[in-house]
Design goal:
The chain contains five helices and seven strands; from the N terminus they run ββββαααβαβαβ. By secondary structure, it is an alpha+beta fold. The structure holds zinc ion. Zinc ion binds next to β1 and α1.
Length: about 160
Amino acid sequence: MTGIGYDVHRFAEHRPLVLGGVTIPHSHGLEGHSDADVLCHAIADAVLGAMGLPDIGYYFPPGDPACKDICSLRILEKCRDLAEANNLLIVNVDSTLVAEAPKVLPHRDAMRTNIAAALGIRPERVGIKATTNETMGFIGRKEGIAAMAVAQVESKDRPV
Ligand SMILES: [Zn+2]
């Protein structure tokens, strides 16, 4: 079973930029109730979608004080727990970050390690790619960062 996820967050001043659980030096961070880790959020929605479950907002309501500034790797850990509870295996995830700046690829291995550990899968099963928006649109104007992801899960009983 396959799932898709998409997320976008606006840049904000005086916030750390956290992507894939890695704090990346940059002039701006991302606005959000949690740590605004757009990459983790897109991956979480892809995994939840693949499992046929409701989206991230169902499990982590945006206004919930318990979610304030939480590390989004916890959200991926929740996905792993839900997979376990539903007797499902997360096969792999693949993702693309869309940002004009900063350069994120130097942090790819660290992001991969964090995401893989949170999902309980091998780092080789976590794809992270990055591209710019060729200076077009809101991403091109450096107003924010978007991320998209796909995930595959299979039943532990009856692989499909
Ligand atoms: Zn988000």
